[in-house]
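STRUCTURE:
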């Protein structure tokens, strides 16, 4: 494999100051729309916000990609309040492949869209700042896309614990009660197939930039679940989404029950919003999951009306116990693992129900609204 070609992608004159909570010194590019003609092989979009614990390690794996051709790494900062701006400044100073963009809207979808507008690559990849990708991630994604029969290439999501609760979440995701109906968690082990089809449960990926432009990118009304919403649009157009075992990426789950509950509450909410726009995006398992918190709540009804709920509670507790036993945690962690599973289920289901109540009256508007295609200029407007 020839060595990666490196060249500066951002002249010093093209930067502007971003308010930095520490000292205001981080230099970022002003918002731009890259021209239609690609200038590099692949643009990697990395939404960043308060990622001081993981960003350096993650960026190191991104820069170590063995892809043939030129790479630019677009780090889109959502006005971080920790040491992330300082770290980004140091990374940008060390490597000319790194470009730093500002994301005043602060959400992931807006970050990705700002990165897409500025992207100069023929291919575009999304990578997460709290994940570690194999060195061949971009190469395998580009090679598979180049075969011409798929629209989106992704890899499995491999949860890796970094702390007690994070490790428990990773263990929970190793079982069917943790994964649910999603097959993006399928590990790249000996028993895994080389490739399998994905539906709307996806984890980052690689695309042709033209494809993303035609889709209009990510919908900014989806602060979470934005990949799933876009995947539903891809599938509705007849596109295929595949997962390659060799592209498996490790990520660190939340290391607190409270943060886990908040995360899954939001997942449930925006999965419901995706369902209202794309009814085929939720199968029987996902549609049954919101019934769990409702059914368990009915167990509090006195007398006969509460009998079904109490039976459900007993069955659910038994299912949790069986799953915990099969996952074989240390004995002292067994109750906490059951708590993690219940938190994931009840937070997701409750968020889904709350979102249906909130957004069901607007389902027609949701179904008719779509991001507008991105129209790029034929040449760089900054050049004479």
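SEQUENCE:
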């Amino acid at each position: 494999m020839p060595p990666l070609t490196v060249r500066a992608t951002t002249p010093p004159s093209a930067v502007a100051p971003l308010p930095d909570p520490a000292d205001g010194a981080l230099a970022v590019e002003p918002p731009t729309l890259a021209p239609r003609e690609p200038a590099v092989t692949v643009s990697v979009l990395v939404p960043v916000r308060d990622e001081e614990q993981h960003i350096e390690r993650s960026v190191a794996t991104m820069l170590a990609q063995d892809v043939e051709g030129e790479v630019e790494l677009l780090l889109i900062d959502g006005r971080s309040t920790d040491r992330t701006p300082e770290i980004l400044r140091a990374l940008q100073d060390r490597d000319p492949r790194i470009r730093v963009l500002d994301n005043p809207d602060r959400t992931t979808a807006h970050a990705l869209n700002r990165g897409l507008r500025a992207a100069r690559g023929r291919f575009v990849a999304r990578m997460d700042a709290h994940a570690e990708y194999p060195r061949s991630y971009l190469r395998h994604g580009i090679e598979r896309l180049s075969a011409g029969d798929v629209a989106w290439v992704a890899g499995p999501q491999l949860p890796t614990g970094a702390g007690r609760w994070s490790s428990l979440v990773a263990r929970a995701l190793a079982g069917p009660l943790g994964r649910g109906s999603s097959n993006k968690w399928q590990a790249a082990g000996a028993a895994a197939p080389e490739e399998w089809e994905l539906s709307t449960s996806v984890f980052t990926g690689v695309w042709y930039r033209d494809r993303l432009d035609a889709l209009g990118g990510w919908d900014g009304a989806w602060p979470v679940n934005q990949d799933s919403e876009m995947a539903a649009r891809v599938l509705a157009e007849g596109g295929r989404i595949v997962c390659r075992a060799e592209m498996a990426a490790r990520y660190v789950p939340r290391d607190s029950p409270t943060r886990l509950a908040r995360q899954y509450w939001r997942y449930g909410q925006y999965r419901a919003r995706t369902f209202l726009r794309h009814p085929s995006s939720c199968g029987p398992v996902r549609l049954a999951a919101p019934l769990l918190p409702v059914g368990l709540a009915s167990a509090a009804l006195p007398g006969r009306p509460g009998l079904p709920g109490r039976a459900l509670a007993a069955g659910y507790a038994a299912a949790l116990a069986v799953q915990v036993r099969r996952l074989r945690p240390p004995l002292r962690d067994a109750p906490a693992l059951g708590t993690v599973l219940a938190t994931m289920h009840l937070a997701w289901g409750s968020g889904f129900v709350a979102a249906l109540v909130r957004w069901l009256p607007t389902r027609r508007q949701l179904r008719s609204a779509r991001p507008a295609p991105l129209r790029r200029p034929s040449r760089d407007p900054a050049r004479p």
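REMARK: The mean pLDDT is 89.
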